[in-house]
Amino acid sequence: MSQPPTRRRLLTLAAGTAAAAPLTYAAPSIAQAARVTQATQAAGATQVAEAGPAAHAAPRAAAGPIPVPATWSVRPFPLDQVTLGDGVFRRKRDLMLEYARSYPADRILAVFRANAGLDTRGARPPGGWETSDGNLRGHFGGHFLTLVAQAYADTKEPALKTKLDYLVGALGECQQALAEHGSPRPSHPGYLAAYPETQFVLLENYTTYPTIWAPYYTCHKILRGLLDAHTLGGNAQALTIAAKMGDWVHSRLGRLPKAQLERMWSIYIAGEYGGMNEVMADLYALTGRAEHLAAARCFDNTALLAACAEDRDILEGRHANQHIPQFTGYLRVFDQTGEEQYDVAARNFWGMVVGPRTYSLGGTGQGEMFRARGAVAATLDDKNAETCATYNMLKLSRQLFFHEPDAAYMDYYERGLTNHILASRRDARSTDSPEVTYFVGMGPGVVRDYGNTGTCCGGTGMENHTKYQDSVYFRSTDGDALYVNLYLASTLRWPERGLVVEQTSDYPAEGVRTLTFREGGGRLDLRLRVPSWATAGFTVTVNGVRQPAAAVPGSYLTLSRDWRRGDRVTVSAPYRLRVERALDDPTVQSVFYGPVLLVARSQEQGFRSFSFYKSFTLRGDLADVIKAEGRPLHFTTHGLTLAPFHLGDDAPYHAYFRRAEPVVVFGTADSGVPNRARNDGLTFLDVLWDQAPFTTSGRFVQAVRTLADTWLAEARFTRAERDAVVAAAVRANLRS
């Protein structure tokens, strides 16, 4: 069935004429934990003149963090408690910081001021979808608020704080102007947007895209930016504005029948609401207003929610980024209500995407859409992996980890961050464009396209590169354990424990990672993530003494001791070259070096064919045929350069290649027998070399003989072919 044009396509057509940030959490005080207990009012679309001051009671005046839910066993550190060290992550961050400092606030505010009838001060809108008549205008401003709030939380630069406060103050003026003399006047004095309320009215009448775009998506971005300005930037007014917006949301949706809401949220794009349920639950956690939690629950997309709670996969054909953030929102509603359906649905949804619908870089979707479960090789082209979708999958992964610290969530987080997100920022300065990707193609010979001012991925892209440190370290809620999730150069300051821990690392390059206790100490469980790719070993020393604890890939290794100032923990996890096979066609593969996706530099538009097995020694190591260059993380094979994908350039690349191993060959010994595959697509040589390394030539020959007997028993070899394969193994006389 054909799909409506993507938003990216519409942007391309219009070019000639014209996403969720990390929040600061704190343990709830008694006052914060108190909740409004009166029944939620059934509010209609009340005109400004009919709404009294009591309907807009201001939340607490002082800026502060969101209370930590009782459902969490793990919590993050605030952005300002983790500082990035030198390296590629910091360099990418610095490029976005320059943009945050330089881009004019008045351009961001132009569409809001115009809608409120205020002087735009001669500023023109940013462009892209953020134009004076764009149906998504205002969303980019919400993202920009988050960008500046994150940048300030990270750097504490006074100029960024001034800019943030200016943005918030101007939005407050727009909200007040709309309430007092909007044309048309909004239904509630809390309304704030860069366009009239018409889009919301049309949505309630089931108007489809592109007549309207995604009004609640835009609302979410503005609300999220305001909450980040409050929790990250310390702006108390931002919460007041957001609380009034929340009252307006409830006034519109709280009166609608459930069936009408469900139909609205099922509409392609027009019904996309981003993380409205998440932001309303967060708002409720800050204000205690029952209306805000009731509004969060108005965003239940019931059919999909129920299917995922029952572990029924109905994702095929659905818009990926329209639905991913809904599940982060369901977790936040679960945090506030304890209703298990929300939690179970989010976990099951994650499992339907990560693995079955994930490309090697960690992204998902083709042309913004979820495709069939397991369809990877069949969907490779130039419009895979919408960057917004990975942004939201990372948010969902960390929220799931807070509830259950399963290393699988951080394994995925590392993949998506190191490959997709790090690769999504061009390695070039710009003060007028975020220079980030929209789609990231996985087909052969594609090129990344950067820019995206005013688009959804331009907005989330601004956020991505100013919060790299948000998941490097977590802590247990009781303060007795420190999780080291990512091995990025960074410094953690944990004032409640009096701890300062510095991590030195060349990540994503290979090398030893060292954690040094610079200040403080005491009893603490240090939980070190053992990545799933760390199959070549994972060793830990404390002050030079190797620790005996067993390290299992895909888990956490715990060191429990009384730590002292000056203690040094070194972690070594050697990288290995490996391939990952597409689920639907195992001959279509990607090459990794440890956690790093390597891509072949080539302009060819068809798959490149690689053959490796004939050059293997007994160790069965790809290093026998993929040779290191002089540059870090660069290799050569089959006359091509393999480069780390995170380099932000515009060179054509191949993230996947076609594996060609037609005949069973061992070194120079050619058996002449076809390398036939099992029903699962794995060939004789695949299964054999998955058993490597072999300690002796004799053990290798025995493995060949055993497997050849299996192939014979399953009628994949004739007796003569079986004998020819074994004879070739003996004749090859392979060495280590």
TrEMBL record:
Residues 482-574 form the Non-reducing end beta-L-arabinofuranosidase-like GH127 middle domain. Residues 1-26 form the signal peptide. Keywords: Signal. The keyword Cell inner membrane does not apply. Pfam families: Beta-AFase-like_GH127_cat, Glyco_hydro127M. Residues 81-470 form the Non-reducing end beta-L-arabinofuranosidase-like GH127 catalytic domain. This is Glycosyl hydrolase.
